[in-house]
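Example 3.2
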Amino acid sequence: MLASGAADAIVRAEQWRAPDSEGMKSMNRIALLAATSLLSAATVCAAETTPTGQSAIEQAFDASIHPNDLRDWLKVLASEPNHVGSPHDKLNAEWILAKFKSFGWDAHIETFDVLYPTPVSESLELLGPKPFKATLQEKPIPGDSSATAKDKALPAYLAFQGDGDVTAPLVYVNYGMKDDYDQLEKLGVSVKGKIVIARYGSGWRGLKPKLAYEHGAVGCIIYSDPHDDGYSVEASYPNGPMRPPQGIQRGSVEDSAFYEGDPLTPGIGATKDAKRIAMSDAPVILKIPALPISYADARPFLESLGGRAVPGSWRGALPITYRVGPSTAMVHLAVKSDWSLKPIYDVIATMKGSAYPDQWVVRGNHHDGWVFGATDPLSGQVALLSEAKAIGELAASGWRPKRTIVYASWDAEEPGLFGSTEWAETHAEELKKKTVLYINSDSNARGILSTEGSQDFEHLLDGVAADMTDPETGVTVGQRYRAGVRTDALETTRDKDHAKAIAKIAADPARDLPIDAIGSGSDYATFVHHLGIPVLSIEYGGEGTAGGVYHSRYDTFEHHSRFVDPGFVYDVLLAKTIGRVVLRVADADLPVQRAGDFADRVSLYLTEVKKLATDRREEAELQAGLLRDHVFALAADPTKSSGTPTALLAVPSFDFSAMETAVTRLKASAKAYDDALAKSGAGLSPDRLAHLQALMQDIDQTLAPDVGLPGRPWFKNLISAPGTLTGYGAKSLPAIREGIEQQRWPEVTSYIKITADALNAYSERLDQAAAVLNGA
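Structure, written as tokens:
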């Protein structure tokens, strides 16, 4: 009766969302806190026999995961807009804190003050004989949270664009990526002094205004074309999952190629007393005004364009003739923002380890969204809460983890990974000393397991995926994952050689599930790229469709429960999958890393960058001949505008011997360590076990030396990093690879040695660990 009554009290207390008055909300918030204390006591009273053995622990964990919990929690969290600085964002943090406490965790909120601009005024107009003004807001849909919410949603907005008021002709730049500007050069079209209009897709949104500025544009418009996420793909919401005509993708365009987090406190936590740089000195804030718009609003602007018709691959799905421009009519773009500090609220919950309290397993997901954020990020947030509830019930039964478990609900991920970055920078030294693994999730959907991260944890993930059953097919999650990797190799249009190599690994049942290199785009970034802490980013997807409402007013509870994960089946599966990872790492006496998987992947990456250098050398030689023979001019249609591409630099021959030697050593050291662990790990004395744990706990930090990447030393990981011209997308061996791609030859030479030295340091640590295992 006590447990039932406490649960009913929680349900009643959650109704504090509904009242209009702040006084009623405060009163009901007090009722919620009291009720959660009741439930916590009830959980202890209702505790059953303590499960023993990993299998029994995981079965008990699974029994505590209920889809109705996730559904009810999502409905509460996504009931109002919850962008940074909104009333609901803070209320959600307080609600999550109360939940953690009710589950038996030691929990608190850490607050940081970050620069977060919000719109004061915005305007986008087409001038001339057919004037048009963009609406910059989405219509509510009857029966949807967009129609029932009381708080206002942010209008169309791109955080960290550069405020301005400009009037200029318009040019269409396709996706606005580097290759598109190369094509414009061949078409003889310049964007200098113009406003560009780019469609979403192909690369991260922040690169679109950045590259526009670098090519001389004075403003940037980004729209969602129905070819990419609208009616050309599937029916539009509410009849289907895709973006309706008025749907707008908000987002941040902070130039995170330099550093993640608060623009004014690079490298340090944004605490109240932190020393901040001037806004004018922050390289991550862009220089030109930019706005996102819907495809309904984009159409009149695109119809105003003159000039030649675009290449076939540049055509969207609007019923118009796509032209490059420029327009004869002028476009007026104006954005003014409030550039003030805003508080953000990280919720941190801890369960102290019984055997190794100074070794931490950290698990995170963010709770802020651009509007309601039901799929992004709250589908992952409710899975995290479900894990925390199940672990709390295990603890109430008498079980305790051997390692300390830290659960984190981050704020302000959307503007630039602020919550996780500021917390990690504030606690950097402690995290580097204690963290064994950081596990992240974000959005989740129906479909196949998707993961990126540190390859020395592939064996761990392989074991978890082999023990999970896919709800749709009845095969293991690992079998579906392998099938998905293999079919992706046939379907991908980019980097097919790499996709085929990864598919070959997936096809071999004797090898662990392949985890690919990790870039950026979610809260793992600071851990792996700045601190050198290993990470796993885990989600499901590919079948449930959330992209059509991404960052729009229509990412709602109703959309998620109808089109993304009906029945919350895969949100539950995410909780069970990550829960197993957390529990296995928390309770493992031996290190869970397997170095052979990492060594094999680095060997593949070296093969790829060597081939890249050869291919670029041949490309430059071929282009030089074409330019010498005036081929581009002779082949161009004389009735249309055209231009000549910029000449590529001749590519020197690079000496990769230091990397080749380092990779050969790495493979040998990895095999020796893995063999020794399999042979002798189970019989270690307490002293030798402690020595082994100390050697392996921070081994990944050897791959992130203080020198960092060229031009962006905040990013220290030399094996994987987000590309400077890909945004979220990962680059393996990034300093070497991007040096070749961007024609910075001295960097290639210097970082061959720097990266080889980091690999040798990793191998040296493996050799020491193998010696401990072998009795030395």
